[in-house]
Amino acid sequence: MRRNDALIGWLFIAPQVLGFAAFVLWPLISVFWNSFYRTNLLSGISTFAGVGNYQQLVTDPVSPTVARVTFFFCIGLVVLNLGLAMLLAVLLNQRLRGAAVFRTVFFSPVVVSLVAWTIVWNFLLQDNGGINSLLHVVGVDGPNWLRGDTTALVSVIVVQVIKNVGLNMVLFLAALRGVPRPLLEAAEIDGAGPWRRFRSIVFPMISPTTLLAAIVTVSGSLQVFAQIQILTGGGPADSTNVLVYYFYQQAFQNHDFGYGSALAVVLFLIILALTLAQWRLRRRWVFHES
Amino acid sequence: MSRKVLLYTGLVLLAVPFLFPTWWMITASLLPANEVLSFPPKLFPTSPQWVNYAQAFGEYPLARQYFNSLYIAAAVTAGTMVVASFAGYAFARIRFHGEKLFVLVLSGLLIPSEVTIIPMFRMVDALGLTDTHWPLIIVPVFGAPGVLGTFVMRQFFLAVPDELEEAGRLDGLGRFGLFRRIALPIARPALAAVAIFTFLNSWNMFLEPLVYLSDKNLFTLPLALTQYVDAYGGHLWNIQLAAAVTTVLPVLAVFAVAQRQFVESLAQTGLKG
To answer: Does B180 contact A at CB distance below 8 Å?
Structure first.
């Protein structure tokens, strides 16, 4: 039985492991390898370039902008997403009639297809689109959202947060249910106000969920592509050109596979480093392990 | 009392940006072209222009693209469910050296498809498979979405009590029988979770079709939706939004019926961003 078991085990995992090797592992090694080569697209010949592509990364005049935009995009998205998710979860965790309906409403954009969602917002955010029409009704002259440096970046962040905040809200709701009510009632008797109860009891107790949500959201924010492509195309003047979009431009619009590979490697290393760092932080920051 | 009123007011205000876009998508899809960006904005179509939908399907290969998206997502989902339940079962319940490969496979979750798409594109190109649906079907089954499926199945099978399989063994079932007759039938909730997030992931795929496809008849819906522009690059908003509505409503309808499963599936796995 045991030997037979092992054989069947190998057969069972074979498709997943072989497929993983062919379509994930090999391409990952290959992208590192490619990043040290320069490919001439006319001749199709690759020549060894050493760290040339990485040197280009340092001297590329667009690099600092991409780095800055990516940083602010990630920070803005994660802070706004987690903050709003926590707020919605706390509001819906009150004993409240109709809470289930609101939960459905806040979750619904998650299942709306991403491109359709982005197209509606593209329509709403036009200079003469729905948002500005509504603002005009109340006497405010709205900006051309997607054409201003700051407003474009903020718009992309907000559109993405509203799309997916429902996921983290659901996670936080489940975590809030795990906070024992007697503890909160005792604190109330001791004179702790709502904010104090949240800060000293609820927040520390849901910190494992916060960490998990932060990891998923950070690495997700580094992969936001379709939204940028549809809303701004990375503009105006690269003000929304995040790393993954710049990677796409270099690899598939300029057809520079060598430089594109170097950018992909950087993207991978950032995701890896952030995830590992957050797991390490867990020990110090998280109050208890569930 | 006033606290309740305040709470409801806050929730209703917060709900506006979540509901309004879908509402406006439907409204604008039924407006004539010259009223789409009119002022004051129309919140109800006074004379619904169903012709927008006829145009979206009649003047563009939308029906064909719809079929592409559906069958690709169905194939990816079926493939992932098979591969993930076999692998998830073996990783969870069979004691053998292959177990150690689980951590390696799990690392796939840290490797987004963007990172590997250059070598994948070159491989697909070398095999002459650009402008086919093969890369859109095969790669997700084994890439990050498939790995997530294997992970979810493994977690489920880990929690299956030993006594259940012991009973099956006494009834003379071999390893495959234990998997097929005991473990798989009770794994339905996990399989449903895998099916939901795999289907939606494929349904929403954007970068891969953008990179691999150039023939409009082969496009999937997300890519197809971006094509509604006139000869000068101006947006044909009402027609584009009509097409968008047709991609959103079916999913929302299924969501309305199976809300709990959707929430559980998507919340435990997490989508992008």
So the answer is: no
Cα–chain center distance at A228: 13
Q: What is the pLDDT of residues A5-20, one digit of tens each?
A: 888 999 999 999 999 9
ipTM (interface predicted TM): 0.88
pTM over 0.95: no
Tokens representing residue A240 in the block? 């929304």
Which of A4, A15, A20 is facing B175, going by the closest CB pair?
Answer: A4
Tell me which chain B residues have a C-beta less than 8 angstroms from the C-beta of A160.
273
Nearest to B16 by CA among A80, A170, A106: A106
Instruction: Name the CA dihedral angle for B149, B153, B156, B158, rounded to a multiple of 10 degrees.
Output: -130
Judge whether B73 is closer than 8 Å to chain A, CB to CB: no
Q: For the range A71-74, what are the long-range contacts, defined as Cβ-Cβ under 8 Å and sequence gap of 24 or more?
A: A72/A153, A73/A153, A73/A156, A73/A157, A73/A221, A73/A224, A73/A240, A73/A242, A74/A218, A74/A221, A74/A222
In chain B, what are the domains? 62-228+249-269 (1.10.3720.10)
Neighbours of A253 (CB within 10 A): 9
Please answer yes or no on whether B271 and A164 come within 8 Å at the CB atom: yes
Question: Tokens for B94?
Answer: 């069979």
Phi-psi region at B39: left, alpha or beta (left = phi > 0; alpha = psi -120 to 50): beta
Dist CA B243 CA B245 (whole Å): 5
- Structural domains of chain A sorted by starting position, each given as residue range(s) with its CATH number in brackets: 55-285 (1.10.3720.10)
Which 223-252 residues of chain B touch chain A by CB within 8 A? 223, 225-226, 235, 237, 240-241, 244-245, 247-248, 251-252
